[in-house]
């Protein structure tokens, strides 16, 4: 009986003090306050250039494509075959991507995303490479070019 009471108290405390965890649902990055302030405002230090995009694409293919897909739609082979829950970020979804600063994406790549299969890459990818990937994934939502 004491264990159940403790468990119930703990559950209520989480609901009371961390309601954003309950509201976020499948995507924890949508919860208010998920990103540390020092990351949210970070700007990509690399120039948006053909060479940066080439490097970003090379890294994306090697590190990201298997889950996020060839087209950045979150339907990579590993995710689809493995029935990931939640599925990886869909970089083509302008509704979500327009709300993500480069610093937010840098945080997710660097630290991983708890509750998903996105693991931290700060130990295996230098910062410059993570920034190059961010430039590359941004091209998946360039809708003004696609509509022409």
Report on this structure.
By secondary structure, the chain is mostly helical. The protein folds into two domains: 1-25; 35-143, Cytochrome Bc1 Complex, Chain D, domain 2 (Orthogonal Bundle), CATH 1.10.760. Helices cover 53% and strands 0% of the residues. The protein has ten helices and no strands. Helix 4 (50-63) packs across helix 9 (127-138) and helix 8 crosses helix 9 (127-138). The protein starts with a helix and ends with a helix.
Index terms:
Cytochrome Bc1 Complex, Chain D, domain 2; 2 domains; 10 helices; 148 residues; mainly alpha
Helix and strand layout, with pairings?
Layout: H1 2-17, H2 19-23, H3 37-40, H4 50-63, H5 65-68, H6 77-81, H7 94-97, H8 102-111, H9 127-138, H10 143-146
Question: In a few lines, what is going on in this structure?
Answer:
Helices cover 53% and strands 0% of the residues. It is an all-alpha fold.
Q: Provide the residue-averaged pLDDT.
A: 85
**Overall shape:** globular
Q: Looking at the chains present, what oligomeric state does this protein adopt?
A: single chain
Fourth-level CATH superfamily of the largest domain: Cytochrome c-like domain
* CATH architectural category of the largest domain: Orthogonal Bundle
In angstroms, what separates the terminal alpha carbons? 66 Å
Distinct helical segment count: 10
Strand content: under 5%
Query: What is the helix/strand order?
Result: HHHHHHHHHH
Class by SSE composition: mainly alpha
Largest β-sheet summary = none
Number of domains: 2
In CATH's first tier, which class of the largest domain applies? Mainly Alpha
Note poorly predicted spans: 14-25
Percent of residues in helical segments? 40-55%
User: Would you count the extended β strands for me?
Assistant: 0
Radius of gyration: 18 Å
Kindly identify the CATH topology of the largest domain. Answer: Cytochrome Bc1 Complex, Chain D, domain 2
